[in-house]
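Hey all, sorry for the wall of text incoming. These are the three entities for the joint prediction.
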Amino acid sequence: MPELPEVETTRRGIEPHVQGQTVRDVIVRQPQLRWPVPKALARKLVAQKIDAVERRGKYLLMRTQAGTAILHLGMSGSLRIVDARVPPETHDHLDIVFTNGQALRLRDPRRFGAALWTETDPLAHKLLEPLGPEPLSDAFDTDYLYAKSRGRKGSIKEFIMNSHVVVGVGNIYASESLFRAGINPKRAAGRVSRARYEALVKAIKDVLVEAIKQGGTTLRDFVREDGQPGYFRIRLKVYDRAGEPCPVCGTPIKQLVQGQRSTYYCPVCQR
DNA sequence: AGTGCGGCCTGTCCGC
DNA sequence: TGCGGACAGGCCGCAC
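and here's what came out:
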């Protein structure tokens, strides 16, 4: 489910319930996630106070004095704040229980997510170290993306979805931002002009900011009775709209597969 | 270093 | 109603 806006919405949603809390217990019901959940996560996190809840790309970082828990939601993961006494449901793989009786509960049906533990600088962790810049930071600009793209033969769509190029652009927002920038997703990254990279950088920032704003409007409902984070997708112009008219020119939206992922685009507006 | 895949999982939907 | 296959908002790890 989550792309960067969902992960950031999740971070903002859990932060007030988690920051400053002390861990009473860690319950691992299913240790087989993307990687095995390390024993040290449960062992070392207990009795620690959560100093901060941060995000790097789509990874969530819960910092303590003893080390940092690294969480990733994969394709189908979600986090919610529950009363620790509420019985877990299927796919509720992990609880971090706090001394106030609440728990941070990870649910992830497909188990592509992760829960890791590191006692050194989490940004130097082997999964985080090679990540590209945050898309909403000043480091992500036309100069950077244009230079990075030179000589690349792969498609522009796969290029911007590569987390080592820029983090946080998932399958939905890749299609949406290429539509906004008027770039054909099949075009080789190395053959896109500087001017078009300028439009693309702006499109990526705009679409992500809008999506985060949407999540933000419902943040106070984050912990609802049904536990679902109150996140609504922004109005998507091309994603999942194969055959529907392009909102700009009316041409039917096309769908194709790139790197085993569906891409949606307007064959007229995007060249 | 860049590129191209396979693979990890479950749930849902669609056509037969 | 059952069944097989495709597909789903991610991304690592490997071979070349």
